[in-house]
Amino acid sequence: MMRRKSKKIILLIGSIAAILSLTQCDLAKVSLSQALFPAKVIPFPIGEGKTVSYTVDSWGKKFYVIYLNIEYTDWNKAFLDTKGHEKIPYNVSIKCYHLKDGQEILFYESKHSDKTDERHWFDASNGWEPIHPHSPDASGMSLALKGFDLPYGKYRCDFKDESPSEIKANMKAAGIVATYLEISPYIALFR
Q1: Which residue, 6, 93, 148, 174, is most buried by CB atoms nearer than 10 A?
Q2: What average pLDDT values come out for the chain (191 residues) when binned by 10 residues?
C-alpha cells in the first residue's frame, strides 16, 4: 500500500514539473495562448482614412506579430490575371501603447508605405481563411507587418490609414474586397 502511494506521489510531482517546464517553453506558451485566447480579427478598411484601435492582453511574455489580413474575391484569379496587386499605394501609421496604472506608455511607433517598406506588403504571405467571406471563391493572405515582445499586461495599437484615395481603385483591380488586422502570439524562430 505504501509503495503504491509513493508511485502516485512521484507521478504527481513529475507531472507538475513537466507542466511547469512546458510553460517556460515558447512553443508551449504560444500554442496554449492561441488555443485558449484566439486573436481577434478586426476590419481595417484601407482607403477610408480611419483610425482603428486593437487591444491585446498578454498573459506572459511572448512574441507577438501584427498581421494585415487581405481578402480576395479569388486570389488565384487576382494574381494570375492582373498586376494590380503590385501597385497598391498604401500608407499606414502605427502607434502602440502599454496601458499601465491609468497611463498610456508609447513603446512602438512607425509608418508603413509602399514607397518606404523594404518589402511590399503584398509580396510575401501566409494563407489566411476569411472568417465571413464576401464571395464563395474568397481566399486570403496574412502578411506580417511588425513583431515585438510583450510582457504581461494590457496593450493597445492604433492604426491610422493615411493612404491616398486611389488605393480603392487599385485594390478593386487586384480583387481585394476587405482588409483586417490581427495581433497574435507567434513562435519566432528567427528574428
Answers
A1: 174
A2: 66 63 54 65 93 91 86 70 59 95 94 68 57 76 82 95 89 86 75 46
Spatial distance between the Cα atoms of 159 and 53, rounded to a whole number of angstroms: 6
Contact 95, 159 (CB under 8 A): no
Q: CA–CA separation, 180 vs 149, rounded Å?
A: 22
Say what the pTM is: 0.74
Determine how β-strand 153-161 pairs with β-strand 62-72. unpaired
CB 146 within 8 A of CB 124: no
Cell reading at 110: 512607425
Residue 64 CB neighbours (<10 A): 23
- Stated as kind and residue range, the H or E segment containing 33 is helix 26-36
Helix (H, G, I), strand (E, B) or coil at 154: strand
